Recover the amino acids of this structure.
C-alpha cells in the first residue's frame, strides 16, 4: 500500500507498560455499576468528556478527544484474549509474541520487519526508543535498532570530552575494520560494529536539519515521540517505530498518578501529530497505542490490581475514527474473575494493521486468522 | 615446576569465576595449577559472601517482591571468594531457565536461585530432584496442573528434552509416563501480599492426586513416582552426555544452540567422553566433572574461545574497575545492564534459555556492551588505573606508548589483542608522547591517558571473548 504522499506506510507502536486502566480512560460514565465498583478511583461524572451518552473520555485526555472528534482516532474496546495472564511479563510477552500458550522467542514486529526488509538492507527499518529491544521486535534475521537517547545515540556516548570521544571512535573504527582470517565470530563482530557506527552517523546527519515550532512537554513519552518525529521526518526508510510509556501499574495511589500519565501521553501524541503534519509527513503514519491488560473492575481502596480486557487506540490521518468492537459488560455475572471480559482478540488488531496498513500478510505473524476491523482507509 | 603461568590463572578464573584482578593473580600464580583448581572446587574453604550488609541494604530481600534479587546476585558474583559457587548457580539457571515473569510469587523465584547455589557442586540426581520440587519451576511448567487422570505434560516433556537428555533419547510414551509419575507434585499457596509482604511457596506432595498405577519409562516398568523417573534418567548415557555438553559449552567453548544438538555432533567428542567418564565414575558429581574439565588439556587450550555472556562481561568489567565493593543505589543498573545486553537474570527469554556464543551479539547489544565497559573505566580512580600507575612508576617513573598499551592489556586480561588492534592503540597513544609521573599534575594527565587506553581495550572485538 502506498499513501498519497508517495511514502511507504509507517507504523508507530506506543506501549503502555504496567497495564493501563482502560475503564478510567474511556469511562462508562452513565453506568451506576462503575461508581459502585470504584468508590475510591472513580472519575467524577461532572468532569468527564462525553463521547456519547454511555462513554466519556477521562478529563486528562482532552488532546486525544480533539483527534477523536476530528475522526482520526479509533478506540478499540475490550481488547484481550482468552485466559488473560495477570502477570506483567507474561502478559506483555503474549502481546509481543502472539503466543498465549507457550513462551515463544519471536515477536510480531520482528516477523513483520523480516517481511519488510528481508535482506536487512537498512539497519533503520525498525527503531525502538528505549534500552534493549522489546521481545516484540526480536526475530531471527530481523534487523532492529534500539536507541536510548537520540541526541547521544551511538558508541562511547559516556565519554564526555569531545576530543577524547573522537579519538576513542577512531580507535574503535580501526579495531572493527573487518579483517579476513580472524575467525567467523570476530568477522561478524567487526561487521556489527561498523554497522552501528554507520547507523549512528546516518541518524546524526539525518536529524540535524530538523526544526519545529511544536514545543513538546518535558516528560519521557513526549521526548520519545519527539524523537520518533525527528527520525520519521528525516525520511531514513524507517517503517516501524516503537516507543514506551511506563508507570501504569497503579496498584496504589492511582488517583494522583493515573491523571498525570494520561496528561503526558495525550499531550505527547497530540504534539507528535501536530509536528509531523506541519512537516507534511503525517499521511503515511498510523499509531497503535496498546497495553498488556486492563485493570481489576473493583478498586482496592487506593488503586486497582491487574485485570484482563483493556483497550487500544489507533490514530492517524487515514484512520477510521470512532468506537470499534464492544465495550465489555460491567455486570457482575459477565466479569471474568472480577475483570472485564475481552470482546476482541488483540491478534485481529495486529492483523488489521499489518494487512490493511503495512501490506504484510499476517497469518504466520499472528499465528492464525483473526477478525479484522475496518480501521484504516487506503489513500484517496 | 613451581607456580602457574599468569595467563593460565587468568583463563581459569575467567571461566571458573568472573575474572580476576592483577593483584589476585600475584598470589594465585605462586601456587600449583591443580591446587588452585582444588580451592575453587572446595568453596567451603573460603568464607561465604558477607550477607549482613547486603541484606540490610537490599531490605526487599527480606520483604521480597523480586526486583532486587538480580542486583544482589551480581553483587555476590563480584565480591565472592567462592567464584565457582556463583558461576555454577548461573549455570543451573542457564540449564533450568525459569522466568520470574511467570511466577506464582516472586520470592519463589529467588528461593530457586538459592537452591541452585546450595546445589552448585552437588550431584545431578539431587539437582534434578530439587528442581522437580521447586515451586517456581512447578508453576513455570504447570506441574501444579498435572493431575491424576488429567496429566499435563509440560514439565515431563521439558525435563527430558531440555533439562536432562535432549531430543532423540526418549519416546512420546516416555513423556506421558514421566508426566504421570509427577502427578501430585505441587506447592503450597503463597501467603499473599498484604499486609506484610509475601512468603515463598513450599513443595507439596498430594498423594490423592498422584497416579500410582504402573508405568513404563525408558524400558523399565513399575509403579513409578517422580523420584524413580529421575533415578532412571541419571543412569542414562544420554543424560551424562547432555550434561557434559552443557558444561563444555558453558566453561570451554561455544557449541551450537541446544536444539541443534540432536543432529550436530560436539566439536570435541573426546572432551565430552572425558566428562562422561567423570560423571559415571562419580555418580554424577559435579565436582568430579569440573575437576576433570579444569585439569584437562582441552580446557587449558581454550582461552578466548567463548563470547562472554552479558553477566560475565558486566561482572568481569566491574571487577577490573574495582566497583561494587559495597551496596549502592546504582547497583540495580548492573542488573538492567545485563538485561539490555540480552541476559536479564531471572528473566530468560524462554524455557529453552539464552542462546549463547555469537548470538549474544547484535547492533543493540554490542552498543550496550561497549558503552557499559567504557563507562565503568572512565574514572581515573578505577582500581585498574591505579594498578597501572603503580606498576609503571615502579618500573621507572615514565612509560613509552608501547609500555602503556602493554600495561593496559595486562590489566584488562585482554591478551588476545591482535597486532592490528595493538598498533591502533599504540598509534593513538603515540600522538601524545611519553607518559610521565614526575609531578602530581603529570600523574593526573597520565591517569587520564591510561583510562582512555583501557576504554579502547574494553570496547574492542577481542574483549568480547572470555
Amino acid at each position: 500500500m502506498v499513501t498519497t504522499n508517495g511514502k511507504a506506510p509507517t507504523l508507530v507502536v506506543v506501549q503502555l507498560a504496567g497495564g493501563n486502566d482502560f475503564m478510567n480512560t474511556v469511562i462508562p460514565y452513565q453506568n451506576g455499576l462503575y461508581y459502585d465498583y470504584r468508590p475510591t478511583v472513580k472519575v467524577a461524572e461532572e468532569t468527564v468528556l462525553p463521547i456519547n451518552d454511555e462513554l466519556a473520555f477521562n478529563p486528562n485526555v482532552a488532546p486525544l478527544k480533539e483527534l477523536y472528534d476530528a475522526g482520526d482516532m479509533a478506540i478499540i474496546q475490550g481488547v484481550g484474549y482468552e485466559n488473560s495472564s495477570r502477570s506483567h511479563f507474561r502478559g506483555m510477552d503474549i502481546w509481543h509474541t502472539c503466543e498465549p500458550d507457550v513462551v515463544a522467542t519471536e515477536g510480531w514486529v520482528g516477523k513483520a520487519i523480516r517481511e519488510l526488509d528481508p535482506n536487512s538492507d537498512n539497519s533503520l527499518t525498525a527503531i525502538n526508543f528505549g534500552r534493549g529491544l522489546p521481545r516484540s521486535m526480536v526475530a531471527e534475521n530481523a534487523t532492529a535498532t534500539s536507541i536510548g537517547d537520540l541526541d547521544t545515540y551511538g558508541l562511547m556516548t559516556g565519554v564526555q570530552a569531545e576530543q577524547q570521544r573522537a579519538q576513542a571512535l577512531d580507535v574503535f573504527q580501526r579495531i572493527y575494520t573487518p579483517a579476513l582470517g580472524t575467525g567467523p565470530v570476530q568477522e561478524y563482530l567487526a561487521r556489527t560494529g561498523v554497522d552501528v557506527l554507520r547507523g549512528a552517523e546516518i541518524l546524526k546527519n539525518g536529524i540535524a536539519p530538523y526544526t519545529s515550532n511544536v514545543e513538546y512537554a518535558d516528560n519521557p513519552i513526549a521526548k520519545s515521540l519527539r524523537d520518533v518525529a525527528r527520525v520519521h521526518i528525516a525520511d531514513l526508510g524507517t517503517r516501524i517505530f516503537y516507543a514506551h510509556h511506563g508507570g501504569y501499574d497503579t496498584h496504589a495511589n492511582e488517583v494522583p498518578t493515573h491523571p498525570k500519565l494520561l496528561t503526558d501521553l495525550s499531550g505527547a501524541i497530540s504534539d507528535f501529530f501536530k509536528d509531523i503534519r506541519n512537516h507534511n509527513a503525517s499521511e503515511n503514519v498510523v499509531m497503535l497505542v496498546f497495553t498488556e491488560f486492563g485493570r481489576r473492575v473493583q478498586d482496592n481502596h487506593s488503586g486497582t490490581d491487574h485485570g484482563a480486557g483493556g483497550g487500544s487506540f489507533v490514530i492517524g490521518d487515514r484512520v477510521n475514527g470512532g468506537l470499534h468492537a464492544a465495550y465489555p459488560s460491567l455486570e457482575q455475572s459477565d466479569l471474568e474473575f472480577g475483570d472485564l471480559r475481552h470482546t476482541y482478540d488483540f491478534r485481529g488488531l495486529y492483523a488489521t494493521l499489518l494487512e490493511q496498513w503495512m501490506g504484510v500478510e499476517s497469518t504466520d505473524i499472528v499465528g492464525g486468522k483473526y477478525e479484522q476491523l475496518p480501521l484504516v482507509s487506503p489513500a484517496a | 615446576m613451581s607456580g602457574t603461568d599468569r595467563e593460565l590463572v587468568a583463563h581459569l578464573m575467567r571461566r571458573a569465576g568472573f575474572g580476576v584482578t592483577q593483584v589476585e593473580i600475584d598470589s594465585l600464580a605462586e601456587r600449583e595449577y591443580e591446587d588452585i583448581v582444588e580451592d575453587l572446587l572446595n568453596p567451603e574453604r573460603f568464607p561465604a559472601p558477607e550477607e549482613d550488609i547486603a541484606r540490610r541494604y537490599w531490605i526487599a530481600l527480606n520483604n521480597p517482591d523480586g526486583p532486587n534479587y538480580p542486583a544482589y546476585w551480581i553483587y555476590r558474583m563480584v565480591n565472592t571468594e567462592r567464584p565457582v559457587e556463583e558461576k555454577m548457580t548461573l549455570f543451573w539457571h542457564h540449564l533450568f531457565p525459569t522466568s520470574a515473569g511467570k511466577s506464582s510469587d516472586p520470592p519463589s523465584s529467588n528461593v530457586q536461585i538459592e537452591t541452585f547455589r546450595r546445589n552448585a557442586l552437588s550431584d545431578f540426581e539431587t539437582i534434578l530432584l530439587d528442581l522437580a520440587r521447586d515451586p517456581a519451576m512447578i508453576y513455570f511448567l504447570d506441574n501444579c496442573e498435572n493431575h491424576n487422570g488429567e496429566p499435563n505434560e509440560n514439565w515431563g516433556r521439558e525435563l527430558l528434552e531440555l533439562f536432562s537428555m535432549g531430543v532423540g533419547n526418549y519416546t512420546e510414551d516416555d513423556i506421558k509416563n514421566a508426566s504421570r509419575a509427577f502427578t501430585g507434585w505441587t506447592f503450597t499457596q503463597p501467603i499473599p501480599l498484604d499486609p506484610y509482604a509475601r512468603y515463598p511457596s513450599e513443595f507439596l506432595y498430594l498423594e490423592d492426586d498422584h497416579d500410582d498405577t504402573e508405568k513404563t519409562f525408558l524400558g523399565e516398568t513399575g509403579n513409578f513416582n517422580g523420584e524413580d523417573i529421575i533415578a532412571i534418567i541419571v543412569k542414562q548415557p544420554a543424560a551424562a552426555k547432555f550434561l557434559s555438553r552443557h558444561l563444555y559449552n558453558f566453561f570451554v567453548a561455544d557449541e551450537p544452540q541446544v536444539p541443534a544438538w540432536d543432529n550436530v555432533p560436539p566439536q570435541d567428542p573426546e572432551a565430552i567422553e572425558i566428562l562422561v567418564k567423570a560423571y559415571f565414575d562419580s555418580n554424577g558429581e559435579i565436582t568430579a566433572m569440573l575437576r576433570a574439565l579444569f585439569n584437562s588439556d582441552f580446557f587449558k587450550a581454550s582461552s578466548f574461545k567463548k563470547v562472554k555472556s552479558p553477566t560475565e562481561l558486566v561482572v568481569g568489567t566491574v571487577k577490573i574497575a574495582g566497583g561494587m565493593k559495597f551496596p549502592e543505589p546504582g547497583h540495580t543498573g548492573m542488573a538492567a545492564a545485563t538485561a539490555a545486553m540480552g541476559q536479564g537474570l531471572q528473566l530468560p527469554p524462554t524455557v529453552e534459555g539464552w542462546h549463547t556464543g555469537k548470538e549474544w551479539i547484535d547492533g543493540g547489544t554490542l552498543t550496550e556492551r561497549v558503552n557499559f565497559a567504557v563507562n565503568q573505566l572512565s574514572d581515573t580512580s578505577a582500581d585498574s588505573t591505579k594498578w597501572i600507575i603503580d606498576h609503571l612508576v615502579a618500573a621507572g617513573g615514565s612509560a613509552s606508548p608501547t609500555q602503556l598499551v602493554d600495561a593496559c592489556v595486562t590489566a584488562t586480561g585482554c591478551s588476545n589483542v591482535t597486532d592490528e588492534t595493538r598498533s591502533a592503540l599504540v598509534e593513538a597513544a603515540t600522538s601524545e608522547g611519553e607518559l610521565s609521573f614526575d609531578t602530581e599534575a603529570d600523574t593526573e594527565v597520565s591517569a587520564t591517558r591510561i583510562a582512555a587506553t583501557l576504554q579502547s581495550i574494553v570496547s574492542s572485538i577481542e574483549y568480547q571473548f572470555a
